[in-house]
Amino acid sequence: MKLIRNYIDGKFVPGTREFADVNPADGSVIAQVGEADRNLVDTAVHAARTALRGEWGRLTVRERAVRLHKVADAIEAKFDCFVAAEVADTGKPISLASRLDVPRAAANFRAFADLIKTAGLESFSTETPDGKNALNYAVRKPLGVVGIITPWNLPLLLLTWKVAPALACGNTVVVKPSEETPATATLLAEAMQEAGIPAGVYNVVHGFGANSAGEFLAQHPDVNAVTFTGESQTGAAIMKTVASSVKPVSFELGGKNAAIIFADCDFDDAVHGVSEAVFLNTGQVCLCAERVYVQRPIFDRFVEALRRKAENLRIGSPLEKLTELGPLISAQHREKVLSYYRLAREEGAQTVTGGGVPKFGNALDNGFYVQPSIYTGLPELARCVKEEIFGPVCHVAPFDAEEEAVHMANDTKYGLAASIWTTNLKRGHRVAQQMNVGITWVNCWFLRDLRTPFGGVGFSGIGREGGMHSLNFYSELNNICIRL
Ligand code: NAD
Ligand code: 6OH
Question: Which of 18, 284, 318, 320 lies at a C-alpha separation of 20 to 30 Å from 408?
Fold first, then answer.
């Protein structure tokens, strides 16, 4: 059986215990994973700290950028290995991993390599009391050792979204990928070696959250900052863990995102876009829409068109090129999603489609599949309308007036993303500007430009990453004031 190892100080090391890496498409064990105990996490943090003072710390910005481009080259050279590993770990369709996850991983390194070379900083000419001048300018320094804790839904994409800017700013990192999807973080270590990233700059520790590698990393006194993507409750736990050492945190957390569809939308475009927003990656994207609000004149037609989309999605083996919908990540997560399917009915919803588990008559029946599901008829206070489900499911509700849609969309403790579908651009701007979220799309969804601010409000996160926002999180500014 294959062993997925930790990567510490440039070496692949087994753990002190092992746990199973399960393929969600058929429940088979694909590898054992070496779990890092507190000592191994400590060794990784120590290696990362030591590497700050070595060759890595002496590279110029331009030299760092060249190495990061080499990491992207190495990812592209191993494209098929990364895709295969990501598909086996997550069960996502091979077409999705090939067009989204792996290309984005390479793009993350290229984007931040290019940005750090051109990023400027403010300077101010300041009048002194004696009528002369002082010059203020800031210099950018690495934070030091950054702890990076990531989830299972877009494992490599979300890991590299943080590793790339952290390295671009000159930090060293210790990453703790999700226990559900450990493979690509270790594979990335091979790419780092090939790209000439010095030992200790990129370290991987495998394990779980509480009382395991995740918590040991967040607690470690020599970790200078923690960046985390995952559930809001986990964010709260990590915040508690780091509070006593006053570490900066960046949190990209959960969502209960709304899509608002106006009667004047381009109907087919909106149906297609909302279907993607609900079902992509089996609904396991933090940006997915689980609340769909449709203006009354097109409500019935829209629900019917979305139903047809859901029923025509090709569910099946992630390895089939044409598969559009894979399984959920785990048996436990499937139980959670199915419990919401049951709850929706208990709360009085009408099932438009789905609500159960598909049958294949082959090994996929041992996988963690659910049917894509659409519900209507719930009151806005229903738990299924308020709580993040993180599956291929949405509730569709009608609205009459624009203000009503804005109110319902904003009536949530989350605030990650929203999408608005209208051909009236004035309305698009007006509604978008009223959304209490970090990211609003008009007539599109998950259209990403890596320079833009990314993050959420309320339970959806703290801070923004992306472009200069990432550089500002992953560096400390030292302002220098010189009396001239
Ligand atoms: P999760 O919070 O369960 O786990 C994420 C990571 O945190 C894992 O590596 C886990 O081992 C670790 N962890 C868990 N408890 C910990 C602790 N006490 N201390 C330190 N580390 C700990 O999240 P998940 O189930 O892997 O991912 C799904 C969730 O992530 C959803 O809520 C989704 O909305 C959210 N998410 C948000 C974004 C975003 O950008 N806002 C992106 C992707 C996923
Ligand atoms: C959440 O599941 C998806 C997050 C996406 C990004 O962070 C990104 O940079 O595209």
Answer: 284
